[in-house]
Amino acid sequence: MRGLLIVVSGASGTGKGTVCKKILDDMPEVAYSISATTRLPRPGEVDGKEYYFLSRDEFQAWIADGKFLEFADVYGNFYGTPLNKIEERLNRGEDILLEIDVQGALNVKRKCPDGIYIFLLPPSLEELKRRIEGRGTETPESLHRRLANAVAEIKIGLEYDYVIVNDSVDNAAAQIKAILTAERCKVARNLDKFDLEGVD
Ligand code: 5GP
Fold first, then answer.
1. CATH of domain 5-186
2. Pocket test for ligand 1, best of 18, 37, 46, 156 (most atoms within 8 A of CB)
3. Measured from the CB, is residue 104 less than 6 Å from ligand 1?
4. Is any atom of ligand 1 closer than 6 Å to the C-beta of 35?
5. How distant, in Å, are the alpha carbons of 30, 170, 171 from that of 120?
6. Whose alpha carbon is nearest atom 6 of ligand 1?
7. Which of 30, 92, 140, 176 lies 20 to 30 Å from 84, alpha-carbon distance?
8. pLDDT band at 42 (very low <50, low <70, confident <90, very high)
9. Is 32 helix (H, G, I), strand (E, B) or coil?
10. What confidence score (pLDDT) does residue 156 get?
């Protein structure tokens, strides 16, 4: 069976990073697509693990070389999904998880309509604000910008296939696993099982 292209988005502070990490820990068959970005690493982030950290010139060179499936300007920095043989890997049956912003996800959806588009919501806007502030890495200006963006992004959630309220990491991850199980059972993904040639 062709692998699943799983695209997860959610407003900043929705906790999508933690939920995706749990999925990857619990489901070793799912591979994470490491994005490239021009933003600076946060403390503890390692080049080639969380992201490929590129200069703006390097990022532009990757664009010119056609290395991205999609890229977007998010909060003043560039982020992009490297093509990195995604199509071949899916055809080999590998599942690939993309954790990207809404602009990127909509671009991928146009190119890959058989992907699974999952939108994470915070339990409430108050909780979202608390989570972004609690991260402690934002300046007041970037906090304000991220909150305003979050509200605009949530509206784009209507374009996705599935919505999950991240009230707890375990619940959200369990729901994503249930979605993946159901998707793997879709008739359209299992047409080979209906190939009854040779059976009377
Ligand atoms: P952060 O800087 O907090 O790691 O990520 C900021 C935003 O960029 C998040 O919404 C994240 O999902 C998004 N993002 C991360 N990688 C990519 C990517 O490859 N493409 C796009 N379009 N957005 C990305």
1. 3.40.50.300
2. 37
3. yes
4. yes
5. 19, 13, 12
6. 74
7. 176
8. very high
9. strand
10. 93
Distance in angstroms (rounded) separating the CA atoms of residues 108 and 106: 5
Interior angle at CA 163, CA 109 and CA 127, nearest 5: 120
Which residues are CB-contacts of 1 (< 8 A; sequence separation ≥ 6)? 93, 184, 189, 190, 192
Residue 111: its H or E element? helix 102-111
Ligand 1 centre from 81 Cα, in Å? 9
Q: How far away, in angstroms, is 194 Cα from ligand 1 center?
A: 39
Alpha-carbon span 5 to 85, nearest angstrom: 13
Distance, CA of 72 to CA of 105 (rounded, Å): 10
- Distance, in Å, from the CA atom of 20 to the CA atom of 30, rounded to the nearest integer, reads 10
**pLDDT per position as a tens digit, 155-194:** 999 999 999 999 999 999 999 999 999 999 999 999 999 9
Q: Where are the domains of the chain?
A: 5-186
Helix then strand count (H, E) for the chain reads: 7, 9
Q: Looking at the CA of residue 99, tell me the nearest atom of ligand 1.
A: 12
Residues 6+ apart with CB under 8 A from 94: 3, 29, 31
Which atom from ligand 1 is nearest to the alpha carbon of 81? Answer: 19
